[in-house]
Amino acid sequence: MQDGSLFPQPLSPQDARLKNPLALAFIGDTVWDLLVRSRLLRSPHRVNTLHRQAIALVNAGAQAQALARLLPLLSQEEADVLRRGQNAHARHMVPKNQDPVAYSQATGLEALLGYLYLSGQEARILELFDIAVPMP
């Protein structure tokens, strides 16, 4: 961001992997939200409809379903980041209305997205997102 760019200077994949998995999920959650909202804006709906559609895609259950489509496509490195994210959250952090397994999977997906974002792998993020959330 120092060069006036919207995006930070990428970290090396090794440095990005060293980040706390919950920190990766913290940024990955925002990456997912931005991708979903950007995709939804392609359709000519009212804001209320867009908001409802976004809510349907930005939750643990939807992210767990998206992850299921991606699992066979992940590299070993990506699968390792995913696993660290899934194992990172404490059971007491799971919201009462969420399935703990889906919540763990969603946290893993968010950690993976955070890792890819911080290491400057935007093309890979878009490739995975297009598979995870196919165009209607």
Give your account of this protein's structure.
The protein is mainly α. It has helices spanning 13-17, 21-40, 47-57, 60-70, 76-88, 100-118, 122-132.
Number of strands: 0
Which residues sit in consecutive blocks of at least 5 with pLDDT less than 50?
none
Q: In what range is the share of β-strand residues?
A: under 5%
Average predicted local confidence, pLDDT? 90
- Globally, the shape reads globular
Rg, please?
A: 15 Å
Q: Helicity, in percent?
A: 55-70%
Largest sheet: none
Cα end-to-end separation:
34 Å
Feature tags:
136 residues, mainly alpha, 7 helices, globular
Topology (elements, then pairings):
Layout: H1 13-17, H2 21-40, H3 47-57, H4 60-70, H5 76-88, H6 100-118, H7 122-132
Helix pairs in contact: 2-3, 2-5, 2-6, 4-6, 4-7, 5-6
Compact overview of the structure:
Helices cover 66% and strands 0% of the residues.
